[in-house]
Fold this protein.
Amino acid sequence: MDYKFFTKDKEFTYLEMGSSTYQQESQQLIEQGFIEQSLIVSADSPEKAQAMFKDEHQGFFKKLNMLLGPFITSGYHRS
């Protein structure tokens, strides 16, 4: 099954893309302020999909922090 994830602040939720109500539910989430993520997770169960999303999401932020850390660290000044 394929799952699409939506995030808002530090929360996330997901929808099964094969569901007959996917379009309607995704629109409702967007109207509530959730952001649709581009990542589609294929997994045997919702629990596995969530674990995969968390791993990917945390990995992305770790990479972003490594790249941008010097530029967003408080107290960092250019000479």
